[in-house]
Design brief:
Blueprint lengths: L20 E2 L14 H6 L8 E3 L2 E8 L18 E5 L12 E3 L18 E8 L9 E6 L2 E2 L1 E6 L2 E6 L6 E4 L10 E8 L8 E2 L2 E3 L2 E2 L3 E6 L2 E13 L4 E12 L6 E9 L11 E6 L3 H4 L2 E8 L13 E9 L5 E9 L4 E4 L2 E4 L6 E6 L12 H13 L4 E4 L6 H10 L2 E5 L3 E2 L13 H15 L5 E5 L8 H13 L4 E3 L33 H9 L23 H10 L5 E4 L7 E4 L5 E4 L28 H8 L3 E7 L4 E6 L10 E8 L2 E10 L7 E5 L12 E10 L2 E12 L3 E3 L3 E2 L14 E3 L23 H7 L6 E10 L2 E10 L2 E14 L3 E10 L8 E9 L4 E8 L12 E8 L16 E10 L5 E15 L3 H6 L11 E10 L21 E11 L5 H4 L2 E3 L1
Parallel strand pairs: 13-29, 26-27, 26-32, 27-28, 28-30, 30-31, 42-56
Antiparallel strand pairs: 1-10, 2-16, 3-4, 3-6, 5-14, 6-12, 7-11, 7-16, 8-15, 9-10, 9-12, 17-18, 18-21, 19-20, 19-22, 22-23, 24-25, 33-34, 35-36, 36-39, 37-38, 37-40, 40-41, 43-47, 44-49, 45-46, 46-47, 47-48, 48-55, 49-54, 50-51, 50-52, 52-53, 53-54, 53-55
Helix pairs in contact: 3-4, 5-6, 7-8
Length: about 1000
């Protein structure tokens, strides 16, 4: 077998983990050169005549393996070749395919080798540099290459790079002539030794997925800038320790001057005149070509996620003798101090709480090439739902994302591009990967250390813990000692990925206790009896896969209570589904295996709080309320006094406009505006509300809704039931019910104990989870709950009522379930259903206990009195409130990537379905229940693995439950708490049914029920 083209110096270099690069320029801060202050102030490289974008159409050749590339192509004009868009992934442009794995490699796991069949792409483009760039230095900037890139100019080897998520730069000056066309070729190899540390639970893609640029500098230039800031809250002063390093091409010998000016948010100069330092280009030994500034700012406005004050730092490089401007650039910086004190993370003097989420770069159409609109949408959604923090899982995100975090205010843990999940036990201490792991960390720090939003560096994810991490930590601390270090595997007791060991240890590489998915009991235990002097902030604690995030409010009850608990990060932000179409044109979100990618981990990359197109899932409403900045901590029904706690640390609550309303059965009877309310950070204040006097009648509920908004967007909410009465029981003439036909129901209610299996119950695409005892799905199937057989049915008439008793067996247990229904009819059309259930105590906890009624699919309008407007579950009710709600049948089932249980409504008083003419079916009870009306049956939801597999049946299904099991987060995280599980035993409830006629009001009808 031949090697890569003969111009390359080594055979199969992509399999050498020690060979991370050849001729790549040193890492530096992310800035660009500009000719003027005006252009520099934009910080937009497109506004600089010294930056040339190479984005757009490139010629492209695809090969099954690197060795298939003919040498001649590297120097040939790309005539007749296919075209491809850069930035982009060739796996989303018609070549090869995306491949998804989580805890396994996409090929045989034999580090550091990769398969011979290794998809390879050759990108070629004719480039030229302007004549104005003559005698200047020209640098190629590659924003991101997956996985290894090899660069050529006119067929001549330039260099090689690895690390898919950080820029790589090469000096092309020796290869280029101003005003002349050149052929730039970039060979990209999909899999390499570095794939073993980029095994990060997302799609394996390939290509030039971030922008490509040419950058021109003088022979002396701003090589690296580090603006280390601090803030002293007591004195309200900021500190700036600025180090400006100059690059020098050729022999040193030029005297230069660096000038700086700081501008506030209004564009006003902080200093009366620019500060300056001379840089002696003749003597590296004394100064190292570095200009150092150490400044103090009085009355400094600090940066925080709550109040993200930014300053513009303008830098000018001048020739000392002539005074001519060589280069200008601009950075945005924020003043802050981060430290740990008495076991707490202290940010600008305050023990902040991290209301965070993990975030991948993901575009629903382009994969790893993310459109700016998604970055803006991500930030807007996070801030509008009261998140304040992001962990860049599991690599440095697009640099533009960090700019946005600086601007809108999000605390960031910036994570190095390394995860070795399939080799967790080895690579963290394997010397072959030591250079790569240290380099990936240090290069990230160099790129990003000027961002105000970053408060901690992460050494990576799920890569074990060993010397490689400690050395990477040492490198990070040497480059930037103003931030903390994060390393979750340092919480483990051994090489393996086991339970977190929360005794001291691993301090060299982690300033946090940051375990994954601790049970709520562990939160409470650590809060009561901390075993370390480091803050407890789990890097992943609630897994958002499918219909999920149960018990979030319970978790935060503990966090708000115990000072050593300071929040955590939900896994994760955006579902990584890719937009595809069926043969008949129906769109769906594709996941692992949908591209024929084997092996795969099915839909385990679809575990976000928002869908791939950023449509929020219902769990986002829960997050918004749990994380809200002002909490109604106490309400007195007698006096109308409400106590509000401002949970923010740096801003008064008067940025919010407050209002409240009073409703009876969802109908507003009173509303009032309170305007802004002044509450100091971390303080409470009590306010008196004027409440209308009202006498609550039978079947009515009197509710107070308190809201706070900013610029028209609701940010805080609390609801209180002030009074409620059960429906009135009225003596009503009955009608004898001799048989089922007399009930005039389309079908009799059927026992229903299963639900459309959640990803948290068991991932349907993973065959082993259908029988695994550690999964609810496996326990239910092992107990035979999906294989009930009717052992006996008894039908009898009792006092003009019809009683039907059915006994069911499982394959392993006789008389496992008994379900008794007693029906009584009334002249006014009501049907009373007394329901009795008995479940043998040997059965596992159940998905639900209830019945299902099959309805006409024309019943398209759904109404209910209960919690809304989104779906709710026993362990996810904070983000909903009591009221009268309605919607279309098609809206009741949220389109989760994998169909599953959805649309449930808790604390129901009644629910109904109607057609356009007003005919329909009403169900109510004199006790609170849960239920839904869906366009698909539970059996359909269980069987479907994609929404397009759900075919319309022309029916609607009314599900009425005594109880349904909580959601939990057990697809990867903790299961629901015991109090939200449905245990076997005896259960009873009475429901009333009524056929609705046009004009009948279900809310009025449900107030009076027949005895």
């Amino acid at each position: 077998m031949t090697s890569i083209p003969s111009s390359f110096p080594l055979p199969r270099p992509w399999e050498i983990p020690e060979l991370t690069q050849i001729n790549r320029l040193p890492a530096r801060s992310f800035h660009f050169p500009f000719p003027t202050e005006k252009s520099a102030s934009t910080r937009n490289p497109e506004k600089s005549k010294w930056v040339k974008s190479l984005d757009g159409e490139w010629s492209f050749d695809y090969f099954d393996m690197p060795e298939d590339l003919p040498d001649a192509l590297l120097g040939e004009l790309p005539e007749g070749a296919a075209s491809i868009e850069v930035p982009g992934n060739w796996t989303r442009q018609g070549w090869d395919r995306p491949h998804y794995t989580n805890v396994q490699m996409p090929f045989e796991n034999t580090p550091p080798t990769v398969p011979d069949q290794n998809p390879t792409g050759l990108f070629r483009k004719i480039i030229s540099i302007p004549k104005t760039w003559k005698n200047r230095r020209t640098v190629l900037h590659l924003g991101g290459v997956e996985s290894v890139g090899v660069i050529y100019v006119d067929g001549k080897f330039v260099g090689m790079t690895s690390d898919s998520r950080l820029p790589a730069e090469f000096d092309l000056s020796p290869f280029l002539e101003a005003g002349k066309d050149h052929l730039l070729s970039i060979l990209v190899i999909r899999y390499s030794a570095f794939s073993y540390v980029e095994d990060q639970d997302h799609w394996w893609m390939a290509g030039l997925h971030r922008s490509v640029k040419l950058i021109s500098t003088d022979q002396v230039w701003f090589e690296d800038i580090f603006a280390k800031t601090g803030y002293k809250p007591g004195k309200k002063t900021g500190t700036l320790d600025l180090q400006v390093k100059l690059g020098v091409n050729g022999e040193p010998g030029r005297l230069c001057r660096v000038e700086i000016q700081l501008k506030d948010a209004d564009g006003k100069n902080v200093w009366k005149k620019p500060l300056s330092r001379k840089v002696d280009g003749t003597n590296y030994r004394q100064e190292g070509f570095v200009a150092q500034f150490n400044e103090t700012l009085e009355q400094c406005l600090p940066w925080s996620a709550e109040v993200p004050n930014l300053y513009a730092l303008h830098l000018t490089l001048k020739d000392q003798e002539s005074g001519s401007v060589i280069e200008q650039t601009c950075l945005r910086i924020g003043f802050k101090t981060v430290k740990i004190k008495k076991g707490q993370l202290i940010f600008n003097g305050q023990p902040i709480l991290i209301k965070g989420v993990n975030r991948h770069d993901h575009d629903p159409d382009h994969g790893k090439t993310i459109d700016r609109k998604w970055l803006i949408e991500d930030a807007a959604l996070l801030k509008s739902h009261n998140f304040n923090a992001v962990r860049t899982a599991h690599y440095p995100n697009d640099p533009e994302w960090l700019d946005i975090c600086d601007e809108v205010g999000l605390y960031v843990v910036d994570e190095a591009n390394q995860e070795a999940h399939a080799n967790y036990n080895t690579l963290g201490h394997d010397p072959r990967w030591q250079k790569s792991m240290v380099e990936r960390t240090s290069r990230m720090v160099m790129r990003d250390r000027n961002h105000a939003s970053i408060y901690a560096w992460s050494l990576g994810n799920e890569t074990g813990y060993g010397l490689n991490h400690d050395l990477a930590a040492d490198a990070a601390r040497a480059l930037d000692d103003s931030r903390l270090l994060h390393n979750e595997p340092a919480d483990r007791a051994g090489w393996w990925q086991g339970k977190a060991d929360l005794v001291p240890g691993g301090e060299r590489s982690s300033d946090f206790r940051c375990p994954m998915y601790p049970q709520i009991a562990y939160f409470i235990e650590y809060g009561k009896n901390p075993t370390d002097t480091r803050p407890y902030i789990p890097c992943e604690y609630s897994h958002a896969m499918g219909n999920s995030n149960g018990c979030l409010a319970d978790t935060w009850d503990a966090i708000y209570k115990y000072p050593m608990l300071q929040g955590g990060y939900i896994w994760d932000w955006v579902e990584q589904g890719l937009r595809e179409k069926t043969e008949d044109g129906r769109e769906f979100w594709a996941y692992g295996g949908d591209f024929g990618d084997e092996p795969n981990d099915v839909n385990f990359n679809c575990n976000g709080l928002v869908q791939p197109d950023r449509i929020p899932k219902p769990a986002m409403a829960e997050c918004k309320v749990v994380f809200q900045p002002v909490h109604a901590s106490k309400f007195n029904k007698q006096t109308g006094e409400v106590t509000l706690l401002n949970r923010d640390f740096f801003r008064n609550a008067d940025w919010l406009e407050w209002s409240y309303s009073c409703c009876v059965n969802g109908k507003e009877i009173y509303e009032a505006d309170l305007g802004p309310l002044s509450i100091a950070p971390q303080k409470s204040k009590t306010f008196a509300l004027k409440l209308p006097e009202i006498t609550v009648k039978a079947g009515e509920q009197f509710v107070l809704h308190l809201r706070a908004s900013n610029e028209g967007l609701e940010m805080c909410r609390a609801s209180f039931v002030l009074a409620a009465k059960a429906p009135k029981k009225v003596s009503t003439p009955s009608l004898p019910v001799a048989d089922a036909k007399a009930l005039k129901l389309k079908t009799l209610p059927e026992l229903q104990i299963l639900r459309g299996y959640l990803d948290n119950d068991g991932v349907k695409g993973k065959e082993e989870q259908w029988t695994a005892d550690w999964k609810p799905l496996g326990r239910w199937h092992n107990a035979g709950l999906d294989q009930l057989t009717l052992q006996e049915e008894k039908t009898e008439s009792v006092n003009d009522s019809l009683r039907i008793q059915r006994t069911y067996n499982t394959p392993h247990l006789e008389n496992a379930i008994t379900h008794q229904q007693t029906f009584r009819g009334f002249e006014n059309g009501w049907i009373r259903m007394d329901q009795l259930f008995h479940f043998d105590g040997s059965l596992p906890d159940l998905p639900r206990i209830g019945i299902c009624l099959e309805l006409d699919g024309r019943f398209d309008h759904i109404e209910w009195m209960g919690l809304g407007p989104t779906e709710s579950y026993a362990d996810r009710k904070a983000g909903v409130w009591p009221g009268h709600f309605s919607g279309k049948l098609s809206e009741q089932l949220f389109p989760y990537v994998v169909p599953q249980e959805s649309g449930n409504r808790e604390d129901l008083r009644w629910i109904c379905a109607r057609d356009k003419a007003g005919k329909g079916m009403l169900a109510c009870s004199d006790q609170l229940f849960s239920g839904s009306v869906l366009p698909y049956s539970t059996a359909q939801l269980i069987q479907a693995t994609h929404p397009f597999e759900l075919s319309a049946s022309g029916k609607a299904f009314m599900n009425l439950d005594i109880a349904q099991r909580g959601l939990g987060t057990a697809s990867c995280g903790p299961d629901t708490l015991e109090k939200y599980k449905v245990q076997p035993g005896e259960y009873a409830i009475t429901w009333w049914l009524k056929t609705l006629e046009p004009g009948e009001n279900p809310e009025t009808l449900a107030r009076k029920l027949p005895k």
